[in-house]
Amino acid sequence: MCLVIYTSFFSLLSASFLNEPVTGEFYNNSDVQLTRRVKRDAPKIQVPNSWVHAKEGTNVNISCIIRGEPVPSVMWKKADGQVIHNNEHYHLETLGHLYMLQIRDLKVQDFGRYECAASNSLGSASENVHIVGTPQVPVITSKPHGSRGTKYTISWTVDSITPVDEYSVMYREKSGNAEWETKVVPATYESENGIYTQMFQLADLKPGTLYEAVVRARNEFGWSKESEVFVFSTEKDDIPSIPYFTRPDRMRDYIAVPAGTTVNLRCPVDGNPTPKMNWLRDGVPVEKGN
């Protein structure tokens, strides 16, 4: 009679066998024959982040996850095909299936495409990682339904390591094959922790109409990718409205600055008709040039 005692059987299994196909014959609790089938496969590569936004002078890490059997040989290459080796500027490291490349003290010439390449006896694979200094993709934050018939204030945020110089706003009617109209918007808002916020009023729109828009941002390294297409609508009628603050969440009661510095105060306001703005200091109107 053959008796299998499972408690003894499990005590003999290595943790590395779990969740992998195994075969074997079990005679009793002290006599186990066990074989392991190893699946052979060509390399497969996953890239956690294929676009890395970075700043000059910083240390930048890029990585790829590689699996294959036999264990693949791995190398990092520059866009021109040059193989990267360990030195003072580049540091290569492997942690299990994770293969990492650190570029120290990033230079302008380090921006560009990097290739993670792997090969074994069953095949080869490669994936690209891009290091760029351009802004990240803008995110449009305005409400989808406007309060005006012929105007709409669109707002967005963008993450950029270096200052944003300008934006491009493209918009058109959603129905039909209308051509895109483009507005170039100078960057007028300062950043908070690298996050830039901007708004712009589109005019001469049709009341009660659906529009779509995309936004791009530019810094010294070039243009970002386009935002996701944003759909908004105008009001059916140009209804009169009292003035209101469009971004009260960004208005501060107090700003502390050293004497002798230049301070920019902004107050985003809308209304129909367009409100007339006045600035007061301690209740006294501020005149231009003072």
TrEMBL record:
It holds the Pfam family I-set. The lineage of its organism: Eukaryota, Metazoa, Ecdysozoa, Arthropoda, Chelicerata. InterPro entries: Cell_Adh-Cytoskel_Orgn, FN3_dom, FN3_sf, Ig-like_dom, Ig-like_dom_sf, Ig-like_fold, Ig_I-set, Ig_sub. The keyword Flavoprotein does not apply. Residues 1-24 form the signal peptide. This is Muscle M-line assembly protein unc-89. One of its GO terms (molecular function) is axon guidance receptor activity. Residues 43-132, 240-290 form the Ig-like domain. Keywords: Cell membrane, Disulfide bond, Glycoprotein, Immunoglobulin domain, Membrane, Repeat, Signal. GO terms for cellular component: axon; neuronal cell body; plasma membrane. SMART domains: FN3, IG, IGc2. Its main location: membrane.
